[in-house]
Write a structure and sequence with these properties.
This protein is α/β, with parallel strands linked by helices and 351 residues long. It is 41% helix and 15% strand. The protein has two domains: 161 residues, Rossmann fold (3-Layer(aba) Sandwich); 170 residues, Rossmann fold (3-Layer(aba) Sandwich), CATH 3.40.50.
């Protein structure tokens, strides 16, 4: 957006920061983007009113803004709870509505769904990152006329070398490697990934799983690996730069229970590797069954394992996936995402 001529301020939470976000903040400042740090609790609490008051003060002091764009549930709540001011459009990107979680209780689904509907009616616009997420938001009662689909995009990433990655981990060129990239948390279903990997080992016993990420289920995930008797075939790397490892994978497995538009799948496409994924929001826009991967039902761990086995044992699949991914890449670049966002902003503020 800065490269397209917009002045951009980033108002971000001080919690859950990692080295990658710190690197982003450094780069943002070099592009003339102003960054401001605040304290916002992750869970819903009375402190959210303090956060809202702080945001109002920030907008008064640093605005006026043409657009205030909130991201994810808490940022989206705060942005939409702001009072409407002349010339300001309040925009919200959920990045996976929590009501898309298939294991969410019916009571919570109704409560969160009601809140999303009311806030959706209040804001000027919502950005869904996939056609699936837009359809779900409409089911909750957000008018389709107030929702635009803008898929996640990335800049051409610097992917590491296949040989270097495998040498670093002591894995031979011939060894089949399955990658997991994501938070070790309920949403990403690391338990289902390990169950699927156990199924894969029945037909591809020399396969190795590389799990990248940290989270509140980190210890539980390592426990599941032992419980399912796959721990000797799993490498836990923690929070490392996943892009240095993608090309060392023979395929990426996305076991998530729900998503908005998973960045890891976009990155796998840029890396040219196949993806086996659950049928979560956004993947149908990127994965062509039998060409660059497969889509299976959420929680269907046996099917996940079977599809991974099919990919790994088909010597023609890597070339087919690379060719298909090359055709898909242009739709998921950061500049394509920025241009669509710019067009939306201009339409909302009637430039």
């Amino acid at each position: 957006m800065a490269q397209l001529g917009w002045d951009v301020d980033v108002y971000h939470c001080s919690g859950r920061k990692d080295g990658f976000f710190e690197a982003f903040l450094t780069e943002a400042k070099s592009l003339g983007i102003r960054t401001f740090e605040t304290s916002i609790g992750r869970e819903v609490s009375a402190k959210d009113f303090q956060s809202l008051a702080a945001l109002k003060g920030f907008v008064r002091e640093n605005g006026p803004y043409d657009v205030v764009h909130g991201h994810s549930s808490k940022g989206g709540f705060l942005a939409r709870a702001l009072s409407k001011t002349t010339g300001t459009a309040r925009v919200y990107t959920p990045n996976a509505l929590v009501t898309m979680d298939p294991l969410l209780s019916e009571k919570k689904r109704k409560v969160f769904g009601f809140v999303e509907k009311q806030l959706g009616l209040r804001a000027e616009h919502m950005v869904a990152v996939s056609t699936d997420e837009k359809a779900h938001a409409e089911e909750l009662g957000v008018p389709g006329s107030k929702i635009s689909v803008i898929p996640n995009g990335i800049r051409d990433p610097e992917m590491g070398s296949r040989n270097v990655m495998r040498e670093k981990l002591g894995i031979t060129e011939e060894t089949p490697v399955v990658g997991f990239v994501g938070r070790l948390a309920h949403q990403k279903a690391p338990d289902d990934f390990l169950k699927a990997f156990k199924k894969l080992l029945e037909t591809v016993p020399n396969a190795i799983a590389v799990m990248i990420g940290k989270g509140d289920q980190e210890e539980m995930t390592q426990g599941w690996a032992k419980e399912y008797e796959v721990d000797k075939s799993v490498r836990f790397l923690g929070a490392v730069n996943a892009r240095e490892y993608f090309k060392g994978f023979d395929l990426l497995m996305l076991s998530s229970r729900y998503e908005g538009h998973p960045y890891t799948v976009v990155e796998a496409i840029f890396a040219g590797i196949p993806v086996v994924t659950t049928a979560v929001s956004g993947v149908s826009d990127m994965i062509r069954d039998g060409q660059n991967g497969f889509i299976v039902p959420v929680g269907a761990t046996d099917q996940m394992g079977e599809k991974m086995s099919l990919v790994l044992q088909d010597q023609t699949f890597p070339l087919r996936a690379t060719k298909t991914n090359e055709e898909i890449i242009p739709a998921f670049t950061a500049m394509a995402m920025a241009k669509s966002t710019k067009e939306l902003y201009e339409r909302l503020i009637q430039v």
